[in-house]
Amino acid sequence: MAEDAADATADPTAYVDHAAKLLGLAIAPGNHGAVVANFRNLMDLAEAVRGAAGVPPDDPLALFRP
Amino acid sequence: MSRGPPGAAAIAAALRDGRTTAQAVVAQALETITALDPALNCFTATLADEARAAARRTDAAIADKGDGGALAGVPFAVKNLFDIEGLTTLAGSRLYASNPAAERDATAVARLRAAGAVLVGALNMDEFAFGFTTENPHYGPTRNPHDRQRSAGGSSGGAAASVAAGMVPLALGSDTNGSVRVPAALCGVFGFKPTYGRLSRAGTVALAPSFDHVGIFAGSVGDIALAFDVLQGSDARDPACTGRQPWPSLPVLDDGIEGLRIAVADGYFATGAVDEALDAVAHVAEALGATSRVRLPEAERARAAAMLITACEAAALHLDVLRANPDALDARIRDRLTAAALAPAGWVHDAQRFRRAYRDGVTALFSQVDLVLAPTTPFPAPGLGQDTIEVAGCEVAVLPALGRFTAPVSFIGLPALSVPVRRPGKLPLGVQIIARPWHEALILRAARVLEDKGTVGATVATP
Predict the structure, then answer these.
(1) Are B349 and A1 in contact (CB < 8 Å)?
(2) What is the ipTM of this complex?
(3) Among B201, B147, B139, B211, which Cα is nearest to B178's?
(4) What is the rounded CA–CA span in Å between residue B23 and residue B54?
(5) 8 Å CB contact of A55 and B304
(6) B34-68 b/e with 16+ CB inside 10 Å = b?
(7) Exposed, middle or buried: residue B247 (CB in 10 Å: 0-12, 13-18, 19+)?
């Protein structure tokens, strides 16, 4: 998972093409730019979630709290 | 603009008193729909024959037993992602049009019908509920009754507009990141999103299951409360539906706001909006005597996380369609879902970890306040087809901006009501009244005070 995220950030276009093939999603040439743009938008959202302080630690016992 | 036709409570009372009949009320609603819908495009299906038959049954029940139910004779309509027995559930998609008809009503539809309400039709929406403007390429855009060149908002645009135009006094929609509150604000009606899990979603088409809520549109606080009380109750068909006892809101609706700690959301919620949207919040705060301000911690990150998780949950739900039939979808939705289907799992995992921490932070906040006020949208209804808009000197994309103030609230399932601020001669704007989970009654009490003071109120848009 960590490698995927790094790959996605390093080269979103190559990542989109590779991941789409793996998932069996055909992206028509006319839509490719829009899909990559949307993917970059998700990258920005993911970056915003990480934020300056980083993501809060996992809380494995949260499931068992009332 | 006028006050419009009678609301749900008034209709039910008139039937109880014998001053009118369900058949007369439903006939009037169908006439209004026939007159106005060609221009507004709220409805994707009108169930005229079924509605007339249901109205006859209601009148017979009243003649026989003297009681047709709490919502006897009240015409209502639902977003077309609710199952209606005998009708194909479209969820705004051309793909679903060839599906067989639903075999049973969604729970929410069944409960309103059991209370005597009469279903008159199914309403337009963004495809798969994945939008904020109800500009549907397959079924056409729904137009804002207050200005037909403008969007009704979305994704429950048909529901909001049908109430705003006086076609029906009551409508149901769904809210994932704002899809009840946003169109309610843009169309000038009340739009209620209860706590996540309060109302059963059984028999509705999901967008993002950890975000989806059933919501209510109406022209008054009393009608919202009436419908909310009818809809409450556990449902084994929806695993997310709470087993908590219903908390009837009508009996406490006029309890006032004395002792309630009410604050205005500051920081993120006081920026990124046009002045009139912020002025609307200030106006509501003044009417409620709210002078303190609070910050929902990390609201900007919450919005980002909400959008990310929503897109990924939706893409997972629709992966088979994206593989088999992508070109049948709205192109914008197809491309957004395709991108989300490719998102690394680590992004979603991070966002969910943040979600838990954000919930804890906001829970702590609600130990100090009972109600929080915030804008519903950053600006009034945009034009149909408008992609960008100027806000505080910056050009921003319309679609993501519309959910700016609603997403951080529904992200953790907080209940919220968008109240229409009275602005004669101006486009509608809404203000959110937000409470801690399960405390919807506090919201409705505050909204009732605002309505009684004339600070908020829905007005029917006359053609």
Answers:
(1) yes
(2) 0.90
(3) B211
(4) 9
(5) no
(6) eebbeebbbbbbbbbebbbebbeebbebbeeeeeb
(7) middle
Residue of B nearest to A61 (CA): B356
Which residues touch B309 (CB under 8 Å, ≥6 apart)? B208, B210, B211, B348, B351, B352, B355
Pairing of strands B135-136, B140-141: antiparallel
Q: What is the mean pLDDT of each run of 10 residues along chain B (463 residues)?
A: 77 94 97 98 98 96 90 98 98 96 98 97 98 97 98 98 98 98 98 98 97 98 98 96 94 97 98 98 98 95 97 97 93 95 94 93 95 98 97 95 98 98 95 98 98 95 77
Burial class (CB in 10 A: 0-12, 13-18, 19+), B200: buried
Please give the Cα distance from B45 to B158 (Å, whole number). 11
**So what's the pLDDT on residue B2?**
45
Host H or E run for residue A66 = none
Q: So what's the pLDDT on residue B3?
A: 56
Mapped onto helix, strand or coil, the DSSP state of residue B212 is coil
Question: In whole angstroms, what is the distance from residue B186 CA to residue B34 CA?
Answer: 23
Cβ contact, residue pair B340, A38, below 8 Å: yes
Q: Is B174 an active-site residue?
A: no
> Encoding tokens for residue B32?
């209004």
- For B211-259, what is each residue's pLDDT tens digit? 999 999 999 999 999 999 999 999 999 999 999 999 999 999 999 999 9
- Which residue of the set B93, B162, B179, B249 is catalytic? B179
φ, ψ (nearest 5 deg) of residue B149: -90, 5
- Residue B207 CA, chain-centre distance (Å), reads 15
Distance from CA of A33 to the nearest CA of B (A): 9
B155 belongs to the catalytic site: yes
Helix, strand, coil share of chain B (percent; to 5): 40, 20, 40
Q: In chain A, what residues touch B353 (CB-CB under 8 Å)?
A: 55-59
Quick check: is B179 catalytic?
yes
If we measure between CA atoms, which residue out of B236, B223, B285, B217 comes closest to residue B257? B285
For chain A, the 3-state helix, strand and coil shares in percent, each to the nearest 5, are: 75, 0, 25
- Give the pair of three-digit tokens for residue B344: 């690394």
List chain B residues with CB under 8 Å of A48. 300-301, 304
Rounded CA separation B210/B207 (Å): 9
Token pair of B386, please? Answer: 């408008």
